[in-house]
Amino acid sequence: MRRFDAEVLENRELSRDYRRIEVEWPGEAGTPAPGAFLTVRVSGGTDPLLRRPFAFSGYDPGPGQASFIFQIRGPATRLLAGRRPGTALDVLGPLGKGFPDPDPGGRPVLVGGGIGLGPILYAARDFGSRAARGGWEAPVLVLGFRTAAQVPDLDFPEGTMICTDDGSAGFKGTAVQAAELAGAGGRYGPDAPPSYYACGPAPMMAALDRLAVVRYAPFWAAAEQWMACGVGACMSCAVRLKDGSFARACAEGPVFDGASIDWGAM
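Above: the chain sequence. Below: its structure as tokens.
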């Protein structure tokens, strides 16, 4: 983890209210893992006071570039949307625990909902590039959005399944329904058992938790949780577990064994 000023290389609109920022990333800051995150100071003043956390959506060690995707939701993200290339962002990262590798011989099935797109897209590309060397099968990527207007303008990996709640693009239904159909359709099965990876709203995560139980499959979940400090000090990002205890999303997570989280309390 390091704090540094990173030059904004790109700030691009992807779809309605969604943007992608790419920044320079020095090698000495460490390699951001899929599922890990960074925090940024949105302005040089005291408003907003707190740093904002964002999951990595990509990393290229060659030129030293990292990216994150965010949704414009309030004053802080509106300020961030106005950042021009060539300006500097106060960055702290990489932070948190990322996704573990898929099981040998298995098929990683990656499910993203809404702004959960970023870490899942990064994991899909990382797992896909390393699957070619053996160890696990090529991943299945399923991404869900409310409507076609939210589907981002990005080059998705071949075979990506796009879902919309209203059927205006791709499969009509939820991302979890599409992931279940992909299994029934032979995209994965006994010869390549699934390992689920997901980031998205709590109802989607709860549904995937139930699907993973039915399939006796591991489920790795990147929890979307509000954070204040991002370094484990303030306890504002506590996630309730099924055993009644709590864990910090920024320190023990944000990636957890999805079967351990009480999704009904999220």
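The first helix runs from residue 75 to 81.
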